[in-house]
Design goal:
20% of the residues lie in helices and 28% in strands. The protein is an alpha+beta fold. It folds into 3 domains: 64 residues, RNA-binding S4 domain (Structural Genomics Hypothetical 15.5 Kd Protein In mrcA-pckA Intergenic Region, Chain A, Roll); 82 residues, Pseudouridine synthase (2-Layer Sandwich), CATH 3.30.2350.10; 141 residues, Pseudouridine synthase (2-Layer Sandwich), CATH 3.30.2350. The strands form 3 sheets. Strands 5, 6, 7, 8, 9, 13, 14, 15 and 16 form a 9-stranded mixed sheet that branches. The chain has a 4-stranded antiparallel sheet with strand order 1-4-2-3. A hairpin with a 3-residue loop joins strand 5 and strand 6. The longest helix has 16 residues.
């Protein structure tokens, strides 16, 4: 275990300690800082604090950083749909139903298991042993493009783009109902649901700002095909926001109707486009993939219903 000590400058006061430490110590992500704070490895003026503690001028912060754990997640020979790869990063098209990284009780069959087989030791270690290479995530039942870092330097530069909202992420979704306005912005903070802790919700309590821009691609027989652009990246953001305005995503088992009219295995949400500045070349790169077959099948069915002026449900 290594130790660090920092003294807060007067002009740095009133910053959350998790943000302060992740900004000051380059090889620690904010989520990792939150973990070591929760584990009691961060003290301010000799006392443990919570992640939402706001630092004050002349605070003395002592940090204990555990040595990296031995990686126990196993590499698995799982097919990867790699859209782009170089020495710094990969762009992967994740299928619906694949978990991004292992979690308690679920250490196999994930994207990370597949990446470890494909990349070996060439994955960033910023997010620890469970999430090597993972710069950002999408839900298990959301398909589409993900960015993976092969080294820590690339990871930090890509994560900074996410933090600065300069990374381009566009999604397509099929939602219930016809949205009246062809374009719109949902600016509503998201936090943990007060009763069901597995869900997120729009709330002003213990929440973070969340902004989703959307535009209508096509109106289809009591449904709407939309594109969403994320300005922020909160957990379940598009799913929560669309449900909040009364247009939940088709197939969403958490935020949509209890009965799914299409018998899907998850929400009809696809991360279609990903754009970023390459961490080494500094060139802007953009990738786009079409939605998977099940998604297109629903669209074709709804288009047929439109043409026949019918509604089968």
């Amino acid at each position: 275990m290594t130790t660090r000590q920092l003294k807060v400058k007067a002009e740095e006061h009133n910053i959350r300690i998790d943000k302060y430490l992740s900004d000051r110590i380059n090889d620690l992500s904010r989520s990792y800082v939150q973990k070591i704070i929760q584990d009691g490895l961060v003290q301010v003026n000799g006392k443990n604090v919570k992640s939402n503690y706001k630092v004050k001028g002349n605070d003395i912060i002592d940090i204990k950083i555990p040595k990296p754990e031995k990686l126990e997640v196993k590499a698995e020979d799982i097919h990867l749909d790699i859209i782009y790869e170089d020495t710094d990063l990969l762009v992967v098209n994740k299928p619906q139903g694949m978990v991004v990284h292992p979690a308690a009780g679920n250490y196999t069959g994930t994207l990370v298991n597949a990446l470890m087989k494909h990349c070996g030791n060439n994955l960033s270690a910023i997010n620890g042993v469970i999430r090597p290479g993972i710069v950002h995530r999408i839900d298990k039942d959301t398909s589409g493009l993900l960015l993976v870092a092969k080294n820590n330097q690339a990871h930090l530069k890509l994560a900074k783009q996410i933090k600065n909202h300069s990374l381009t992420r566009r999604y397509v979704a099929i939602v219930y109902g016809n949205i009246k306005n062809n374009v719109g912005t949902i600016d509503a903070p998201i936090g943990r649901h007060p009763i069901d802790r597995k869900k997120m919700c729009v709330t002003t309590k213990n929440s973070r700002n969340a902004i989703t821009h959307f535009n209508v691609i096509e109106k289809l027989a009591h449904f709407t095909y939309i594109e969403c652009k994320l300005e922020t990246g909160r957990t379940h953001q598009i799913r929560v926001h669309m449900s909040y305005i009364g247009h939940p995503i088709v197939g969403d088992p958490v935020y949509g109707p209890k009965k799914d009219k299409f018998n899907l295995n998850g929400q009809a949400l696809h991360a279609k486009l990903l754009g970023f500045i390459h961490p080494t070349t500094q060139e802007y790169m953009e990738f786009e993939v079409s939605p998977p077959p099940y998604f297109e099948k629903i669209l074709n069915l709804l288009r047929k219903m439109n043409n026949e002026n019918s509604y089968i449900f």
